[in-house]
Amino acid sequence: MAACFQACDLLIEDLQPPEFLPSSRTETWPLEKSPLTACSHLPIKLIQMATVTALPERVQIEYRGYFAQPVFGVLSNPAALYANLLRHLGPFGATVGGLNINLAVLAQANVSCLLATGFVRLALDHLELFVRDVQNQAQVEELLTAVTRAIGDTDSSLKPIRHDVTMLSWSRMKDEPFSSYIRRFVMKPESLTAAKSRVGFVEVGTDGGFVRSIELEEAADIREDVFLSSVIHLSGDPNPGELVEMFRQQLSDQLSAIELDVQFIEK
């Protein structure tokens, strides 16, 4: 993937001799030199260190697939959609009582279906799937397959052509506390003793368009452990299995770049 990386308000250290590096500047690094784009208002140190292991306590997945055209016809007569959601998503907790339609504002019109593990929502221009407690990769693939079949049986033209997948995880740091690990990327000023560090990396394509991002901060409910947010943009018409595998590979690349091994244990 051709991509360029722009560092925002960033001080890069230890990459060049001091005489060649101004004290404050904005740099553009080619793909082979910078695995991610760091956007921060604090100094960054890029130092090769040992990978740290993190054990997830909780994982959430948010999927959003965008259609080529708005689906006015499906929402104006949703009976077939209701029937297909119940038929394909019944094994995942879908019931008549969990179906809902919102037509109050045209731009926000949608049909939603509650599941035992989250919800599905079909809006005018996109499809959403939220899984609040991911057990394993197979679970996500099975849910996405069922949702795809439900909307496909309703209208064969309902095929997302762009995909945004967001993963949120709360993980325990096994080898190193978060306050130490985060110093690989950002050092807070000594005067801000009560401040907590947070760092985000954004990757953009050669056209300046968003490709993927990853953010790290200390988890609010598990001290010295990590909250991680990864957003990955994909395109094309992959089947659910291919889509999940594409996301997994992209996420693996991100985690490798930040020297973090999140061990997604099958529950």
Distance between the termini: 33 Å
For the secondary structure, the number of strands is 15
Helix content: 10-25%
* SS field, number of helical segments: 5
Oligomer: single chain
Largest sheet: 13 strands, mixed
Number of domains: 2
Overview of the structural elements:
With 267 residues, this protein is α+β, with helices and mostly antiparallel strands. The chain folds into two domains: 3-57 and 165-262, no CATH class; 68-129 and 137-158, 2-Layer Sandwich (Double Stranded RNA Binding Domain). The protein is built from five helices and 15 strands. It has helices at residues 72-76, 79-89, 137-154, 178-181, 240-257; strands at 3-6, 12-13, 28-30, 38-39, 44-45, 52-66, 99-102, 110-115, 118-123, 126-131, 162-173, 198-205, 210-218, 226-235, 260-262. The strands form two sheets. Strands 1, 3, 4, 6, 7, 8, 9, 10, 11, 12, 13, 14 and 15 form a 13-stranded mixed beta sheet that branches. It has a two-stranded parallel sheet with strand order 2-5. A hairpin with a 2-residue loop joins strand 9 and strand 10. Helix 2 runs antiparallel to helix 3. The longest helix is centred in the middle third of the chain and has 18 residues, at 137-154. Mean pLDDT is 83; it is low at 1-35 and 37-47.
